[in-house]
Amino acid sequence: MSEQNPVNTNKTPSAEGIAAAARSVKGRGLPPVHLWNPPFCGDLDMRIARDGTWFYLGTPIGRPELVRLFSTVLRRDGDDYFLVTPVEKVGITVDDAPFVAVDFEVTNAGADQEITFETNVGDMVVAGPDAPIRVVRDPQTGEPSPYVLVRANLEALIDRKSFYRLVDICVHHDVDGQSWFGLFSKGAFFPVIASSELAE
Known about the structure:
By secondary structure, the protein is an alpha+beta fold. The protein has helices at residues 15-24, 64-72, 160-168, 195-198; strands at 40-48, 54-56, 59-60, 74-77, 80-84, 89-94, 99-107, 114-119, 124-126, 133-137, 144-151, 154-158, 171-175, 178-185, 188-194. It has a 6-stranded mixed beta sheet. A 6-stranded mixed beta sheet has the order 9-8-7-12-11-10.
């Protein structure tokens, strides 16, 4: 993991220290991690698996409130992920996306439709121009991996059951002269697959 900031050699990063610092700045909303520029203190043996499970020292973190706390100080810089507090910044490993969208609700219909996703850590996000949905297809298998932007470069992988439900509400819509099968939310259209591919 590359990092430009100098390494702070005076302390070893720990989950306990990050948690304590995160608690100290916890308020009603999310901490302003984008405004903090603390020294880089090295990498932490913490990993977020593709299914959204957080691991510390190879063991799943079993306390949902602790996972939620860590998630509030998560930041993505480029392709790297960090837990950031006002006093330190530590690198962690993310296998795919840091969050998983585990459910959603739909209000309104047609172009006025709004899709509100809930993540595994309790975030709520309405898909739209500022929170786009994107679908990446595996070049080998064609298997889709759908994502929704939650906040500041942090995405949620939409779980399989939710994606199947989304497909049920997809419609055909022309984009730049091409027909796509996709979703409307908050006035924006998000292509899932070309309509022509569905007919193959």
